[in-house]
Amino acid sequence: MKKIRIIARNLLCVMLLFLLCGCGSNKVEKATEQCEIFMKALEQGNWETIQGNMPLDGLNSRMPEKEQQNGVMQEIMKSMTYKIESVKEQENGTIIVDMFIETTDLKALLESLPEDISSQEEAGIKMKELVATTPRKNFSAKVSMVYVEETEDFEIEIDVSFANAVTGGMYDLLVELMGGVE
């Protein structure tokens, strides 16, 4: 009888460990899956996916009306490829997703515009044409997936490295244009 209790207690401990370990990995898997869905939407040029979440140092991430008309940023996002490098759960339950992003180099795209462009509309049309042939740039980026207990889901928080990557280096370009001020 004593052996049965010991075996039952050990079995219960193993089951509890399995459940506890399984919950953590399930959380990581769910966060990874949600991040993949987010990235697939971006690859399709879906600006609304990140609208309001682009921390470009106070710049409004809502798509400007001119961008809605010419769609250069959507074309840059469609040119993007990504690879998730690591997914790690922090002590506070936040999941950090580190990734590698390759996309059109915005600076090279702007430099490739002919000098005889006479309007923003003409520049937008030409930029869309040039996205496919413009050199690409590699970025390291980070996404934080914050678990929200009320909804049992994750909120995506992106940092400047991510915003910079999906825009082809817009943040780097702004820092360069402002004379290196960060």
Give an account of the 3D structure.
The protein is α+β, with helices and mostly antiparallel strands. It contains seven helices and four strands, in the order αααββααββαα. It has a four-stranded antiparallel sheet with strand order 1-2-3-4. A hairpin with a 5-residue loop joins strand 1 (81-89) and strand 2. The longest helix has 42 residues, at 2-43. The protein starts with a helix and ends in a 5-residue tail after the last helix. Mean pLDDT is 76; it is low at 10-24 and 52-64.
What sort of overall outline do the alpha carbons produce when their principal axes are compared? elongated
Structural class: alpha+beta
Rg value = 22 Å
Our count of helices gives 7
Strand order of the largest sheet: 1-2-3-4
The SSE string, one letter per element, is HHHEEHHEEHH
Average pLDDT: 76
Distance between the termini: 71 Å
Total DSSP E strands: 4
Question: Which stretches of 5+ consecutive residues score pLDDT under 50?
Answer: 10-24, 52-64
Helix content: 40-55%
Report strand %.
15-25%
Largest sheet: 4 strands, antiparallel
